[in-house]
Write a structure and sequence with these properties.
binds flavin-adenine dinucleotide, binds FE2/S2 (inorganic) cluster, six-stranded mixed β-sheet, alpha/beta, 7 helices, 269 residues, 14 strands, 20% helix, six-stranded antiparallel β-sheet
């Protein structure tokens, strides 16, 4: 339960309200799995769950991308290199990449939901031969709201990754699709009987994405989502994160839709 004081190495502004922090890990044995999160403590203000958005093969820094929405996240993004934050974790379940081996992979993100998915993109790309077609679909409000724009550009240049991006609204300078992220699903080539999807974004976006994938024959057990709930302890003790019969902090945040079915989340949010 005790946060380890960790030094901030860098703070980079991604979007007007979103920043990526690189933090020194608490020890040389620090590792994480794509999809896991830490509890980040702004000393004297509070502690919040934040996903790890960096490369799982890089154990020299903890990379976390934070959207400032309230007291704690405001304080975290105002930190400077050399400042300290408290870190607990990594906690939670991960995107199950083993389940995708030998199959098509769909990685579908909305808004800041790309942050928890970036480690899975990096992991899949560093073991690219294990997978069939790999597609990243990403939706943001406007071209100016695209997270990791430089990296998206770089990924677009690869022949072994299909990158489809849409925005809700755009000026005439935008050459890509305009519309919700679900509209990209029909543009991608994948075998719904033999593909795995990882989905993260606002709950309403995840709900419509899942409905569309199910309509195309995707099975619930091959559809992974990352859930967000208010958290306090992060380790299954306090009950703050309860969702149906699960504690999202330890049974999640990554869960299959097959698991979620009993919680009625997919169809009722
Ligand atoms: C597993 C997990 C991973 C997360 N990963 C990230 C991440 O990578 N980057 C990131 O920017 N944020 C992430 N979040 C959300 C982040 O934890 C909240 O934004 C943060 O707790 C808000 O705290 P605050 O004190 O700054 O704002 P508060 O004053 O507590 O809240 C500000 C506003 O945000 C809403 N809010 C608070 N917590 C949540 C939540 N968990 N989900 C949805 N809305 C919320 C409140 O209702 C309120 O409207 C994650 C949450 C979870 C559970
Ligand atoms: S946050 Fe305490 S039980 Fe999940």
């Amino acid at each position: 339960m005790r946060p380890a004081p960790c030094r901030i190495v860098s703070v980079e502004r991604d979007l007007p309200d979103t920043y990526t922090l690189e933090i020194e890990p608490p020890g040389s044995d620090w590792r994480f799995l794509p999809g896991q999160y830490t509890m980040l403590y702004a000393f004297g203000i509070g502690e919040v769950p934040i996903s790890i958005s960096g490369d799982p093969d890089d154990t020299t820094t903890i990379v976390q991308t934070i959207r400032a929405v309230g007291a704690v996240t405001d304080a975290l993004v105002a930190k400077q290199p050399g400042d300290f934050v408290g870190v607990r974790g990594p906690f939670g379940t991960s995107w199950d990449t083993k389940a995708a081996e030998g199959r098509d992979v769909l990685i579908i993100a909305g808004g800041v939901g790309l942050a928890p998915l970036r480690p899975v993109v990096l992991d899949v790309l560093s073991h690219r031969d294990r997978y069939e077609n790999v597609t990243l679909m990403y939706g943001a409000r406007s071209p100016g709201d695209l997270l990791f724009a430089d990296q998206l550009q770089q990924w677009r240049g690869r022949f072994d990754l299909e990158v489809l991006i849409t925005v809700d609204q755009a000026q005439h300078t935008w050459r890509g699709p305009v519309g919700v992220v679900t509209s990209l699903i029909g543009r991608s080539s994948f075998d719904p009987d033999d593909a795995v999807a990882y989905v993260c974004g606002p709950e309403v976006m995840m709900r419509f994405t899942i409905q569309e994938l199910e309509r195309r024959g995707f099975g619930d057990d091959r559809l992974y989502v990352s859930m967000e709930r208010n958290m306090k302890c992060g380790i299954g003790l306090c009950g703050h994160c309860q969702l149906g019969r699960y504690f999202v902090c330890k049974d999640g945040p990554v869960m299959t839709c097959a698991q979620m079915a009993g919680s009625c989340w997919i169809r009722e949010v």
